């Protein structure tokens, strides 16, 4: 898998012209929140689709080789086979899009997936995740090591100081170094929007990340006080659309942080369909980064199949 967005030269003139209309964004976000969610069989089908777009994540201080192995097995078979069969869907095999772990756990994930004969991508967070407050050489080295350990997707965090102070050239240069270090691995750039001061900064940071060659832009680490929200997603999706219209390169979008319910996942799919079109509803261009969403989706699917909600013991633990 090679990069889909090679990037372009830094266009400071474009960046300086950006002004985001906050009221218009908030109105659009309200519209998205009021969208009708499909019911019953269609809902179950959309939930299966949502599963295929999840980066199943564990980013905890107490991650161990064994819980990473469990995560990988869950990613390979996120829904019980009997439930899938009862749904009578064409799709017989469902997996999540990838697993996402800390750099020190990449080798564990790679070997667990290999042992299970599965070819799911392993994504590693990097560059001093979550705060990005380590020296640049250390951050670059972390990317190189994660790739050497077998990660094929790298979720880097940006240096928020550079975005908050408008040092776009310096931010672009850092991101180019990470892009080089990623080699053939996909680069997903986390803006940590909860740390940025307004929508205009979010839009500008999105543009710089794409100009530097990011394959995805991602909202959050999941560790900020505010993570993925619909207004911020609309701003980032519009930056993606504008970048595509200007360059012809499609960049992916990954909301992450605090997405926990099946209903929310359906609204995220609806938002992407409305803002970027159905082309973006594939793992190559859209992911949901989540550590605890899958359990609720599985519960809803169980409800669809059996007509009742699962008790605590009826579903396998994630
Ligand atoms: O990148 C993924 C996020 O860290 C996941 O956040 P979450 O634990 O709130 O789902």
From TrEMBL:
Annotated localization: Cytoplasmic granule; Nucleus
EC number of this enzyme: 4.1.2.4
One Gene Ontology term, aspect cellular component: cytoplasm
Coiled-coil spans in chain: none
SMART domains per UniProt: DeoC
SUPFAM superfamilies according to UniProt: Aldolase (SSF51569)
BP GO annotations: carbohydrate catabolic process; deoxyribonucleotide catabolic process; deoxyribose phosphate catabolic process
GO MF: deoxyribose-phosphate aldolase activity
Biological role: Catalyzes a reversible aldol reaction between acetaldehyde and D-glyceraldehyde 3-phosphate to generate 2-deoxy-D-ribose 5-phosphate. Participates in stress granule (SG) assembly. May allow ATP production from extracellular deoxyinosine in conditions of energy deprivation.
Subunit text: Interacts with YBX1.
Family assignment from sequence similarity: Belongs to the DeoC/FbaB aldolase family. DeoC type 2 subfamily.
Protein name as it appears in the record: Deoxyribose-phosphate aldolase
Organism annotation: Tetraodon nigroviridis (Spotted green pufferfish)
Lineage: Eukaryota, Metazoa, Chordata, Craniata, Vertebrata
């Amino acid at each position: 898998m090679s990069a889909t967005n090679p990037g372009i030269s830094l266009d400071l003139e474009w960046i300086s012209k950006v002004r985001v209309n906050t009221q218009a964004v908030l109105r659009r976000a309200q519209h998205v929140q009021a969208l009708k969610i499909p019911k019953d069989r269609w809902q179950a089908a959309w939930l299966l689709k949502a599963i295929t777009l999840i980066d199943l994540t564990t980013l905890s201080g107490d991650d161990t080789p064994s819980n990473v192995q469990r995560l990988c097995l869950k990613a390979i078979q996120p829904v019980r086979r009997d439930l899938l069969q009862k749904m009578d869907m064409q799709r017989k095999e469902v997996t999540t899009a990838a697993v996402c772990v800390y750099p020190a756990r990449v080798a564990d994930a790679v070997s667990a997936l290999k042992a299970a004969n599965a070819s799911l991508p392993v994504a590693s967070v990097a560059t001093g995740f979550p705060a990005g407050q380590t020296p640049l050489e250390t951050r670059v080295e972390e990317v190189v090591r994660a790739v050497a350990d077998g990660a094929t997707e790298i979720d880097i965090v940006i240096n928020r100081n550079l975005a908050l102070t408008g040092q776009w050239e310096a931010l672009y240069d850092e991101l180019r170094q990470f892009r080089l270090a990623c080699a053939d691995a996909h680069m997903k750039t986390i803006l940590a929007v909860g740390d940025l001061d307004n929508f205009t900064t979010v839009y500008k940071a999105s543009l710089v990340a794409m100009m530097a060659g990011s394959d995805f832009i991602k909202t959050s680490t999941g560790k900020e006080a505010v993570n993925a929200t619909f207004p911020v997603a609309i701003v980032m999706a519009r930056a993606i659309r504008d970048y595509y219209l200007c360059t012809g390169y499609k960049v992916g979008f990954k909301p992450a942080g605090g997405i926990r319910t099946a209903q929310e996942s359906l609204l995220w799919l609806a938002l992407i369909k409305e803002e970027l079109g159905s082309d973006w509803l594939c793992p190559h261009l859209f992911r949901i980064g989540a550590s605890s969403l899958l359990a609720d989706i599985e519960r809803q699917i169980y409800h669809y199949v059996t007509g009742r909600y699962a008790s605590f013991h009826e579903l396998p633990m994630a």
